[in-house]
Design brief:
It contains 15 helices and nine strands. It is an alpha/beta fold. It folds into two domains: about 80 residues, no CATH class; about 260 residues, Vaccinia Virus protein VP39 (Rossmann fold, 3-Layer(aba) Sandwich), CATH 3.40.50.150. The strands form two sheets. Strands 5-4-3-6-7-9-8 form a seven-stranded mixed beta sheet. A two-stranded antiparallel ribbon has the order 1-2. It is globular and about 70 Å long. The chain starts with a helix and ends in a 12-residue tail after the last strand. This is Cyclopropane-fatty-acyl-phospholipid synthase. Keywords: Lipid metabolism, Methyltransferase, S-adenosyl-L-methionine, Transferase. One of its GO terms (biological process) is methylation.
Length: about 375
Amino acid sequence: MNKYQATIEELILPAGIHLNGTEAFDIQVYDDRFYNHVLRYGSLGLGESYMNGWWDCLALDHFLFQLLNIDIEKQISKSLKVRWQTLKAYLFNMQTIAKSVSVAHEHYDLGNDLFEAMLDKHMMYSCGYWEKAKTLDEAQEDKLELICRKLKLTQGMEVLDIGCGWGGFAQYASEKYQVKVTGVTISSQQAEMARHRCYGLSVDILLQDYRLLTGYYDRIVSIGMFEHVGYKNYRTYMQLVKNCLKDDGIFLLHCIGGNENNINTDAWINKYIFPGGMIPSVEQLGKSIDQLLILQDWHNFGLYYDRTLMEWLNRFRASWGNLKYSYSERFYRMWEYYLSLSAASFRARKNHLWQIILTKPSFSQLYQSVR
């Protein structure tokens, strides 16, 4: 065993993991370049070496969960490349309109075939609600119903959906609650499918950045979009919500939240999955709404995201026989690693899923929470 192998073994041993061990969560190393790459680049190197096929693991999600539990990343010095990523996030707005459109093209425009194979019938790319659900379809429909009840929708209301995705919420709310929905996305493929799904309904789908929105709405909802806003734009986002919300309106924010005040995301996620993405903390959200909006309810069901992601992973793997003609084997390993890492982060309680209810100071009712 060389010094690099010995160092890696020493780092992972507190997590109960062994190199080339016999447990399902032990990793099998096939290329010695793995060791130096991980020690040099940390989480970026670990993910890249998996994509390269330099190592494998039968229980990838459990292996990553074990590492997150011991904060392995903090024990490996970050490369200059990773430090530059943090400095850029501090100095510059990494989520300008132009950059946001570029991210949407890189991730959400990968191909609707991929997301149709992985997601539920409503095409919800966010955490399901598993309190009573037995299937992914049920969990996502229960989530949609929970959101509608928290928004206290009634017939004829005008609803703004910031980051409408493939139109799942717009379709559900319009059909069941007879509300008019304006959805906004910066993904052309999402907009195309959303318009098709909502054809004939009282739904308008706009292909534009949220910062260009105008109008006045009874309700505003944002499901799984705030992670792309960036800390330099949090206040701008909340100011826009306040400007567009009627005096007795209700805003529901459904987003991933973190434990720390970070200004960027994991280096591997940033490079390969969500460039410029950022998970807000309680403190950062608090500052963004200070003297703008009133907190009415805060609901955390982050453990449900673990199950949701594993359902997506299983469906992705099961559909690979058809998808492999459009995507490479390296993409398969990248996507498998992304879903496994994300599930592990919620399982380890590093990330959470928050549904937050906010109103304007002029809100005149007593808001009663819904679970």
